Amino acid sequence: MLTGLNHLTLAVQNLDRSVDFYHHLLGFRLRARWDTGAYLSLDILWLCLSLDPIEAAGPSPDYTHFAFGIEQDNFGQFLQRLRAHEVIEWRQNRSEGDSLYFLDPDGHKLEAHVGDLNSRLAQCRALPYSGMCFFD
């Protein structure tokens, strides 16, 4: 049976640029690197960057994205840091808790979110989405 998320692999067009983005700008720990890839970590998250030089047409138009947690006390500084590096924002926050929705250099949709599932469920209990049911 499944035990949880094991790792994420993202196809990247330029390995140096992507390692720089995730390691230096976002603060992931660089764990290993080779000619066509790299392993990084953030807490228990294992991220693999895999060189895939096929040019993408840009970010997918759907809402699929990867969200990383961030403490409220660090959110403003993080926001300023990414904006100073002219990182592209792809959506405005519409949910509880501060969030920054941004793209990596290859157009992967990312989010930095203050809060967790429990804070989201508490907000949803107060203001449920249309047709929402809770399973406790």
UniProtKB/TrEMBL annotation:
Name the EC number(s). 2.5.1.18
EC main group: transferase
GO MF annotation terms: glutathione transferase activity
Q: Which SUPFAM superfamilies match?
A: Glyoxalase/Bleomycin resistance protein/Dihydroxybiphenyl dioxygenase
Domain of life, per the record? Answer: Bacteria
Q: Which UniProt keywords apply?
A: Transferase
One of its Pfam families is: Glyoxalase
Protein name per its UniProtKB record: Fosfomycin resistance glutathione transferase
Transferase as a keyword? yes
Q: Does the keyword Transferase apply?
A: yes
* Stretches assigned to the VOC domain: 4-115
Q: Which InterPro entries match?
A: Glyas_Bleomycin-R_OHBP_Dase (IPR029068), Glyas_Fos-R_dOase_dom (IPR004360), GlyoxalaseI/FosfomycinResist (IPR050383), VOC_core (IPR037523)
